[in-house]
Each structure stands twice: as C-alpha cells, then as structure tokens.
Amino acid sequence: MLSLMFAPIQALVSIIIGAIEFFLGIRFLLRLLGANPNAPFVQWIYDMTQPLMAPFENLLPTSRVEGFVFDFTVLFALGVYVFLG
Fold it and tell me: What is the dihedral sign for C-alpha 44, 55, 60, 79?
C-alpha cells in the first residue's frame, strides 16, 4: 500500500533525472566533438545546463586530445545526478 503512494513521486523523479541526464549527455557530446559554442542550439544547451553544472564548476580538469575536449566535470555531474536519482 505504501509503495503505491510513492509510485507517482518515483515516476516524477525518474523523469526529471532522465531529462537531466539527457541534456548533460548532449552537453558532453557537443564539447567532445568541438561544436561551435556560438551556434544557437549549442548556446541553448550550455545555458540550460549551466545551473546543473554550477555545483561542480572547476572540480575536475578538462582534457584536450587531438581536437576533442573531454570534460570530466560533466561526467562526474552525470554520476552524481544518477546517484541522487
């Protein structure tokens, strides 16, 4: 009975965490592939995910390998949000 009461809350949390993971994943891929930060879609993704990334800012290094940017901070944030979910 108690689990039925929390089912809608669990579903809502799953949807929110899923959306956070999706948008942070898009941010990671855009940075990895070197997307133009001046492009409107890329700016929108970066602006939208910036509040989600704020607690983790400058936490881990960003590596550049042959034109690819590997942002460890985004990966760490993804893990934290999965854990919280």
Answer: negative
**How far, in Å, CA of 3 to CA of 26, rounded?**
33
CA distances from 69 to 1, 61, 82 (A): 49, 11, 23
* Three-state secondary structure call for residue 38: coil
pTM above 0.90, yes or no: no
Distances in Å between the Cα of 11 and the Cα atoms of 6, 23, 35, 82 are 9, 18, 33, 14
* 5-51 pLDDT tens trace: 778 888 898 999 999 999 999 999 999 998 999 999 999 999 999 99
79, 21 contact by CB (below 8 A): no
Q: How far is CA 63 from CA 4, 7, 18, 66, 70, in A?
A: 46, 41, 26, 10, 5
